[in-house]
C-alpha cells in the first residue's frame, strides 16, 4: 500500500479550511464588532429652542421674558481620533444652527473602550500622546456611556453621561418595539442636577448672583416657573428670605430607541433645559428657564441608519456564521475523504 498524493493535498487543504473557519469566527469576527479605528459619522437633529430675553429680564417684562420657540437644527458627528489597543479617543461634536444664521458648537472628547464603549481612565502621559492637540481642551474624564450603547445592550444597569452636569444619569428600560425594520429597546432618562460644565456656566457669568423673593413670586404668577417646581416654590414662598442666592441647574429628558443588536441609538428625542435655581429645603429648585432645547433625530437619518444597520447585520451573518460553517463543512469533508482514500494498493507486475 502507498499514500495517495491527492489524499495528502486534500487533508492539508481540509485542515487549512478548518483553521480558517476558527480564525474568522474567534479572531476576525470580534474585531469587526469593535469600535472602528477610522469611524467618522454624523446625524442630523431638528427641533426648537426657547431662551430668556435679556432685555425683557432687565426691564422686568415678564410677558416677553421668554422668546417664542425658534426652529433649529443640529449636526452631530462622532469621530475616532486615535486608538491604542482597545482604547479609543473619540470626539463628539454638535453644531447648533439658529434661525438668525449663528451657530453654537458643543465639543467633547472622551477615552472609551472599543469593546463596550465604557469609560477608560488614561494618565496624563497617554492623554498627551493620544489626544490630538486641537482636542486637548475638549477632553474630559467621564462616567457612563458617552455616545452609544454596546452591542447586545442590557435592559438594566445602563447610565448615560450628561456633559452639562458631568454626571452619569440612569437609563431606564421602557419597552421593546420595532423601528424601520429593526428591533429596538426603548430607554428613558429623566434626570436633573446642577450645571458643572465650565463652558455652559460661562454663558451665565454676567447673570446676577441673587434673585429677589418678589421676582420668584412674579415668575409664579406669570406661569413662567416650570410646572414641576410650582408646588414646592408656592409652598415655600411665605418663609423665603427677601433675597435668594441662586444657582444654575439642568433638566434632561431623553427617549432613545436603541438597536437591539448593535446598541446604536436609532432615534433620540431629547428635551434639555437650563434654569436659574433657588434653594428650598436643601434642594435647588428650577425657577427661571434660561434655555429649553427640544431635539429629535431627523426622519431621514432614522431611515438611513436603520438601512445601514440592516446591511451590517447581513454582513456579520455572512462573515461570522455562514462563511465559517461553509469552510468548516468543506474542510471536514476533505479531511474525511483524504482519510478514506489515504492509501492505494501497490500493483505488482505478474512474473512471466
Topology as H/E string? Answer: EHEHEEEHEEEHEHHEEEEHE
**What characterizes the major β-sheet?**
10 strands, antiparallel
The proportion of residues forming helix, as a percent range, comes to 25-40%
Proportion of residues in extended strands: 35-45%
Q: List segments where confidence is low: pLDDT < 50 over at least 5 consecutive residues.
A: none
Distance between the termini: 23 Å
Strand order of the largest sheet: 5-4-3-2-13-12-11-8-7-6
Q: What is the number of strand segments?
A: 14
Globally, the shape reads: elongated
Count, helices: 7
- Counting helices, strands and paired strands, the structural category is alpha+beta
CA-based gyration radius: 30 Å
Overall structural domain count: 1
The overall pLDDT, averaged over residues, is: 90
How is the secondary structure organized here?
Blueprint: E1 2-3, H1 5-32, E2 40-51, H2 54-58, E3 70-84, E4 87-97, E5 103-113, H3 124-130, E6 158-162, E7 167-179, E8 182-194, H4 198-201, E9 210-212, H5 213-221, H6 227-236, E10 243-245, E11 247-259, E12 265-280, E13 283-297, H7 299-340, E14 343-344
Antiparallel strand pairs: 1-14, 2-3, 2-13, 3-4, 4-5, 6-7, 7-8, 8-11, 9-10, 11-12, 12-13
Describe this entry's structure for a reader.
- With 352 residues, the chain is an alpha+beta fold.
- The chain has one domain.
- 30% of the residues lie in helices and 38% in strands.
- The chain has helices spanning 5-32, 54-58, 124-130, 198-201, 213-221, 227-236, 299-340, and strands spanning 2-3, 40-51, 70-84, 87-97, 103-113, 158-162, 167-179, 182-194, 210-212, 243-245, 247-259, 265-280, 283-297, 343-344.
- Strand 12 and strand 13 (283-297) form a beta hairpin.
- The longest helix is centred in the C-terminal third of the chain and has 42 residues, at 299-340.
- The two termini are 23 Å apart.
- 25% of the residues are buried.
Amino acid at each position: 500500500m502507498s499514500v495517495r498524493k491527492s489524499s495528502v493535498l486534500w487533508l492539508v487543504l481540509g485542515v487549512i479550511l478548518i483553521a480558517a473557519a476558527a480564525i474568522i469566527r474567534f479572531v476576525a469576527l470580534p474585531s469587526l464588532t469593535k469600535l472602528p479605528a477610522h469611524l467618522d459619522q454624523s446625524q442630523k437633529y431638528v427641533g426648537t429652542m426657547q431662551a430668556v430675553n435679556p432685555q425683557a429680564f432687565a426691564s422686568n417684562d415678564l410677558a416677553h421674558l421668554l422668546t417664542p420657540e425658534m426652529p433649529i437644527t443640529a449636526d452631530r458627528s462622532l469621530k475616532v481620533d486615535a486608538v491604542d489597543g482597545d482604547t479609543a479617543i473619540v470626539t463628539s461634536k454638535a453644531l447648533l444652527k439658529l434661525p438668525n444664521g449663528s451657530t453654537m458648537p458643543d465639543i467633547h472628547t472622551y477615552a472609551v473602550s472599543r469593546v463596550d464603549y465604557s469609560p477608560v481612565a488614561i494618565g496624563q502621559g497617554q492623554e498627551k500622546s493620544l489626544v490630538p492637540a486641537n482636542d486637548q481642551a475638549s477632553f474630559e474624564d467621564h462616567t457612563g456611556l458617552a455616545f452609544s450603547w454596546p452591542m447586545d445592550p442590557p435592559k438594566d444597569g445602563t447610565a448615560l453621561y450628561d456633559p452639562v452636569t458631568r454626571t452619569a444619569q440612569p437609563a431606564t428600560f421602557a419597552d421593546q418595539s420595532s423601528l424601520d425594520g429593526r428591533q429596538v429597546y426603548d430607554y428613558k432618562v429623566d434626570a436633573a442636577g446642577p450645571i458643572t460644565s465650565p463652558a455652559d456656566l460661562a454663558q451665565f457669568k454676567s447673570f446676577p448672583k441673587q434673585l429677589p423673593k418678589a421676582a420668584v413670586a412674579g415668575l409664579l404668577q406669570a406661569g413662567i416657573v416650570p410646572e414641576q417646581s410650582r408646588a414646592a416654590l408656592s409652598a415655600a414662598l411665605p418663609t423665603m428670605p427677601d433675597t435668594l442666592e441662586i444657582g444654575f441647574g439642568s433638566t434632561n429628558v431623553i427617549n432613545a430607541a436603541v438597536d437591539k443588536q448593535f446598541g446604536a441609538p436609532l432615534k433620540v428625542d431629547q428635551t434639555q433645559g437650563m434654569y436659574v435655581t433657588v434653594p428650598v429645603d436643601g434642594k435647588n429648585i428650577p425657577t427661571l428657564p434660561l434655555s429649553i432645547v427640544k431635539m429629535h433625530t431627523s426622519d431621514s437619518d432614522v431611515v438611513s441608519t436603520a438601512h445601514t444597520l440592516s446591511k451590517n447585520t447581513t454582513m456579520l451573518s455572512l462573515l461570522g456564521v455562514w462563511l465559517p460553517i461553509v469552510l468548516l463543512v468543506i474542510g471536514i469533508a476533505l479531511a474525511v475523504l483524504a482519510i478514506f482514500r489515504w492509501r492505494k494498493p501497490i500493483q505488482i507486475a505478474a512474473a512471466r
